[in-house]
Amino acid sequence: MNIGIDAGGTLIKAAYRHEDSLELVTFPIAELVHVASWLNEMQNADICITGGKASLLQRHLKQEAREIVEFQASCRGAQYLLEQNHIAEESYILTNVGTGTSIHYVDRGVQRRVGGTGIGGGTMVGLSRLLTGLSEYGAIVEAAAGGLRDRIDLTVGHIYEGGEPPIPGHLTASNFGSVARSAAERRYREPELAASVIGMVGETVATVSVLAAQSCGVSTIVFIGSSFIGNDPLKRAVESYTELRGGKPVFLDKGEYSGALGALLSD
Ligand code: ADP
Questions:
Q1: Domain ranges of the chain
Q2: Which of 155, 201, 193 minimizes the C-alpha distance to 174?
Q3: Among 2, 29, 48, 253, who pairs with 263 as Cys (CB 3.0-4.6 Å)?
Q4: 19 is catalytic
Q5: Ligand 1 pocket member 137 (CB < 6 A)
Q6: What is the CATH number of domain 86-152+188-251?
Q7: What residues form DSSP beta bridges with 5?
Q8: H/E element, 211
Q9: Centre of ligand 1 from the C-alpha of residue 10, in Å
């Protein structure tokens, strides 16, 4: 059996074929030893690993597994998913919003890393936890879905106060900027805090991606990574900011498995 594993900073993703169907599974990184035992039980498995925790996982394996570079794997897997979804794109920016964010220029199957930012899925969870006490990804996203950002984020319109702004008034001028202007005793609720954190991550990721797209002369930006799983607030923030700045966003279904799929498909 062939199996591709992407062992990342937060989650381990696995892709393998079982009786003609493609199986995709996720484990928390805390279960690395359990994942190694699962792999060790497989007879004659051809295992290919990628991701930041690939070497650590390798150390727990009884058999030698192949390793491929993470960026190469995620680009290969994303290309596969694009083809499966009949999306024909030759040249595009691939933005992987994982624990952190990595940005690649893909041109006819060849990828080049063009940048990244430490603002990513880890920021969403970490900062939300500091501000709200919520620590589970699902709880944070659920809270954010019911939160309004207007008491926390300062928009361009807030600054111009009725005057004619040079850019659209609803754009964020300063994430969390309204807090600095409000009374010290003002208390904030979990949903608005989580919504503002996710909004900040989404706007940053979209802005950096669009700048990368402009510098590479393309407009399509393909977004992947587990940070988008069930996360409509993040998708909406990324989508609206990308479109507003002239980019064409594409969200790949199962995009979080790009690295694992790329490892599975590598020879
Ligand atoms: P990595 O390869 O670095 O682990 P991923 O693409 O798997 O990155 O994305 C990790 C991010 O996905 C987390 O920082 C978090 O925001 C989000 N996430 C989605 N589902 C979960 C989950 N069940 N547990 C923790 N984080 C999750």
A1: 1-69+256-267, 86-152+188-251
A2: 155
A3: 48
A4: no
A5: yes
A6: 3.30.420.40
A7: 14, 49
A8: helix 190-216
A9: 5
- Decide if 122 contacts 228 (C-beta within 8 A): no
The reply to whether 1-69+256-267 and 86-152+188-251 are identical in fold is yes
Q: Is the pLDDT of residue 73 over 90?
A: yes
Q: What is the Å distance from ligand 1's center to 169 Cα?
A: 33
State if residue 123 touches ligand 1 by the CB under 6 angstroms criterion: no
Q: Note the pLDDT tens digit of each residue in 205-221.
A: 999 999 999 999 999 99
The angle formed by the CA atoms of residues 52, 56 and 58, to the nearest 5 degrees, is: 110
Interval 17-43: pLDDT, tens: 988 899 999 999 999 999 999 999 998
CA of 227 to the centre of ligand 1 (A): 5
Q: Which residue lies with its CA nearest to atom 22 of ligand 1? A: 137
Helix (H, G, I), strand (E, B) or coil at 20: coil
For ligand 1, say whether the CB of 116 is within 6 Å of any of its atoms.
no
The CATH number, out of the four listed (3.30.420.40, 2.40.50.730, 3.40.190.170, 3.90.226.10), of the domain defined by the range 1-69+256-267: 3.30.420.40
| Ligand 1 atom index nearest CA of 256 | 6
- DSSP class of residue 163? S
Look up residue 52 and give its amino acid. Answer: G
Q: How far is ligand 1, taken at its centre, from the CA of residue 38, in Å?
A: 21
Better-scored residue on pLDDT, 24 or 184? 24
